[in-house]
Amino acid sequence: MTTWDPTVYGRYADERSRPFYELTGRIAAENPSHVVDLGCGTGELTVSLARRWPDARVHGIDSSPEMIAKAPEGATFEVADVRDWRPAEPVDVIVSNALLQWVPEHRELLTRWAGELNPGGWLAFQVPGNFTAPSHQVVRELCQSSEWASELADLAWRDPVDDAGEYLELLSGAGLTVDAWETTYIHVLPGDDAVLRWVTGTALRPMLTRLDPERREAFLADAGRVLGEAYPRRDYGTPFPFRRIFAVAHK
Description:
Helix content: 25-40%
Largest sheet: 7 strands, mixed
Shape: globular
CATH superfamily: Vaccinia Virus protein VP39
Strand content: 15-25%
Number of strands: 7
């Protein structure tokens, strides 16, 4: 599940970190002992949890060795698949930020994680909800085009997440009290090929990883063209609407 390029991903650190802070700001835990960040990426946001709860054991897990290699001091980290994660003891706070869209069985995982919480514990996650947006639709069509179908058609993803109401039902059924909501940010991205540069670090990684260098450059040129048509640049930058789905649940 190595899906992120840490260098490209970090170009938009402010835009990508804002949902994390809005998510974790709704966690009302006062003195947790054990906090886990599942899908922690490069770990800067994990360390912010350690600053918030300085007496807690804060641990980050990510499947990407490249990401974990960049993790700062201030928390403990390991390379692992969150699907295999089983805590040795119940946890007070579980956070998952922009990970579960990559995990087809994440609904079962959420139910399992609810059972890993201490009484009074918190489970908080957010996922992108933009899989029907032009940024994904035009790339999906490109992967299925005559030029790219033989190499990439199977990577033309479908919407892998539920809406806020469906996550409310799921987590309520697991015995939690749930606050679920959706937010659409309109990021203003600077520079040329702004949306292409955004998705290169995440959504396009499976395609770019599969292609050889020459074909990779050709695919990026085609993707830049269709994304540029879908998201034209303005004088002030490129407006890029981005919907996200949040849930904070209390045991």
